[in-house]
Write the C-alpha cells for this entry.
Amino acid sequence: MRQIILDTETTGLEWKKGNRVVEIGCVELLERRPSGRTFHRYLRPDCPFEPGAQEVTGLTLEFLADKPGFEEVAEEFLEFVDGAELVIHNAAFDLGFLDSELSRLGERYGRMADRTTTVDTLLLARERFPGQRNSLDALCKRLGVDNSHRQLHGALLDAQILADVYIALTSGQEEIGFGDAGAEAVRRPAAVASFAPAAGERPRIGVLAEEEVAHLRRLETLRKKAGRALWDEVAGTDEAAQAPAAATA
C-alpha cells in the first residue's frame, strides 16, 4: 500500500476568497512505513496573507517572493501523489485549496479525486474520540506523540507528525521516528510495543497449536448451531474437515 501524508499552508482560511497555497509537504509511506521519499515546496502566492495567517506559519511574502508558483511545481507534485491514498487532517480544507490551484491551470489536470483516494484523520479521530478536541496538537497529546519541536505550522513538519499520529490512531504498534541524527525522533507512548525489522523484512506472527485447535473447535460449534460459519467464506476455505481431527488433538 502506498500512502502520502499531506499537509498544506495557505494565505487564509478560504480558497473561495482568493487565498492561495504557500507550502506543500508530503511524506510517503509504503506498507505503513516511511520510504524516505518526501515532497516539500514553498510557493509564491501572488496575493497577500489574511490577518493572522502569517503569524501561524511564520512565512512572509518577502521570503516567498523568489519561490516558484504552483503552476511551476504542479506536474512534479501530481507525479508524486498520483495513484496513492492521501492521509490528510481535515481533508476538505487541503483538497479544496489544491483543487482550486489545479483549476487555475485549466481542465487538463482535473481534480485531486481523479488521481487519489483520501483518508481524513479528523473524521477518524472524531469516531474514536467523540466530543473531544481533535486538532493535531490535541491528538499528539492524547496519543503520546512528541510535537514539542512544533513551534509554528509547517507543511512538511506537520505531515511528519501526522504520519505518526495516523499510525497511532489506526494501530499504535509502530514507531516511525522521523528526522535525522540531530533531530529528536517522534516517539510512541512507552506502553506501546514497537519494533524495527531489518530493511525488506516484515514481522511474522505465528499461531500456537492450541490456539488453532481452539479456533477450529469454535468453528465447528458455529456450524452445528447456525449451519455455517462466516469464517469459511471470508477465508475462502472450508475448515470443517479439519475440525474433528483438531478437536481430538
